[in-house]
Amino acid sequence: MSEKITRFFASRWGIVISGAVIGILASLLQRLGNPPNMGVCVACFERDIAGALGLHRISIVQYIRPEIIGFVLGSTIAALLFREFRARAGSAPLVRFMLGVFAMIGALTFLGCPWRALLRLAGGDLNGITALIGLTAGIGVGVQFLKSGYNLGRSYKTYNSAGWIIPLSMIGLLLLLMFRPQFLPGGPIFFSDKGPGSLHAAIPVSLIVGLIIGFIAQRTRFCTMGSLRDIILMRDTHLVSGVAAFLVAAFISNMLLGQVRFGFVLQPVAHSNHVWNFLGMTLAGLAFVLAGGCPGRQLFLAGEGDTDAGVFVIGMIVGAGISHNFNLAGRSDAMVQGVLNVGGPSLYGMIAVLVGITVCLVVGFTMRERY
Amino acid sequence: MKKIDARGLSCPQPVIITNKVIQEGEFPVEVLVDTVASRENVRRMAENAGLKVSIKESGEEFVITITNID
Q1: Contact B15/A at CB under 8 A
Q2: How many CB atoms lie within 10 A of CB A336?
Q3: What does the alpha-carbon distance between residue A112 and residue A276 come to, in Å, rounded to a whole number?
Q4: Could you tell me the residue range of the domain that residue A14 belongs to?
């Protein structure tokens, strides 16, 4: 029976149905309170968690997002049920940490991970197209490294308890969310009372949706980066059929819910600075390929005991802190006295993206082995 | 028989290495992996290439044997 379910999830229909379910759930979360075009966004939500913990102090993006907790624990539950929980460690953790930091800097330049790029597009935000082209460019470069022997080395089986560090940390975050302790007057823990951080579905709803997505994504290996990588690398359209279903289902659901507004400018929590939308996602895409998964996939891997993916996740959370503390993240478009003020990253943000791309290229060129 | 040890390598490495060996045209190829994700990815790649795949589970590892149908 369990083998049958595994084969179903690994099948074409399995990934298509899963992608569609995730897309519909994401669209519904927006209706139920999450920020516009941000039903689920791993980068944004990890950034909100970083803010809640005080790793940055941007008061409008601070919240412990139950979806992230659900993604990890849903994956853990699936991995345990299907006996796939394997604690493993030792594949270049510091490099993965650094890739996580730069992946987040790139994603926050655009203001979203690949999931949000798709959801923004599904809500009519055409900057999603620029982002997906940038993502594809970054992945294309990364695939060239894969073809020429890039490899961060093997991971090894480790103590079971090590595999539980990330899942148990998520339970810790859940407790902080539920009890909202104040460690100092005013916080941490910080929770936004305005801006995107203040917009969220009820905790049980977010958590349950997160658990469902975590569960099915662990079974199907749903990965946005992997979907493009597999096409470029070996013309394999398996994963991309799930990602396409995610986009189409979210779009249809958004249409039904009246959540679509086409255009480039003044989209919610977004900017229309095309060059930096493109380059931010190029950096993110390259970092994801080098680390072996998009931010969502890294959470699901961390949930099934992969501590190296866990290090990448922590890198992303720290990267969010760095991104906001050093004013690197993109600013949204704004209308000031009737004049459109196109957003985008600061000069520091631009430099950080270029440094990130350079660092990723050095990683790609220098960490190759010949088979 | 060509043997590949892809244990501990994260995807898509097992697929890339297996594909390289398959291209060389020497069969059967035996691939050792230690995650279900790698097992499914290698299986899918080989089946898409029109090859025959059989899998044996041994402990926490899988031995994938790929043979040419002809």
Answers
A1: yes
A2: 7
A3: 13
A4: 2-366
Question: Does any CB of chain A come closer than 8 Å to the CB of residue B49?
Answer: no
Q: Give the range of the structural domain holding residue B6, as residue numbers without chain letter.
A: 2-67
Subunit contact A229:B12, Cβ cutoff 8 A: yes
H/E stretch holding A47: helix A42-52
Q: Would an 8 Å CB–CB cutoff place B3 in contact with chain A?
A: no
Identify all chain B residues contacting A308, using CB atoms and an 8 Å cutoff. Answer: 10
Q: How many domains does chain A have?
A: 1
pLDDT (tens, 9 = 90+) of chain A, 371 residues, equals: 788 888 899 899 999 999 999 999 999 999 999 999 999 999 999 999 999 999 999 999 999 999 999 999 999 999 999 999 999 999 999 999 999 999 999 999 999 999 999 999 999 999 999 999 999 999 999 999 999 999 999 999 999 999 999 999 999 999 999 999 999 998 899 999 999 999 999 999 999 999 999 999 999 999 999 999 999 998 999 999 999 999 999 999 999 999 999 999 999 999 999 999 999 999 999 999 999 999 999 999 999 999 999 999 999 999 999 999 999 999 999 999 999 999 999 999 999 999 999 999 999 999 998 64
Number of domains in chain B: 1
Contact B8 A221 (CB under 8 A): no
The structure's pTM equals 0.96
Contact with chain A for residue B47, Cβ under 8 A: no
Q: Considering the domain boundaries, does residue A371 fall inside one?
A: no
DSSP-assigned states of every residue in A92-160: -HHHHHHHHHHHHHHHHHHTS-HHHHHHHHHTTBTHHHHHHHHHHHHHHHHHHHHHTTB-----EE--H
Pairwise CB contact (< 8 Å): A234 & B15: yes
Both tokens assigned to A147: 């073809």
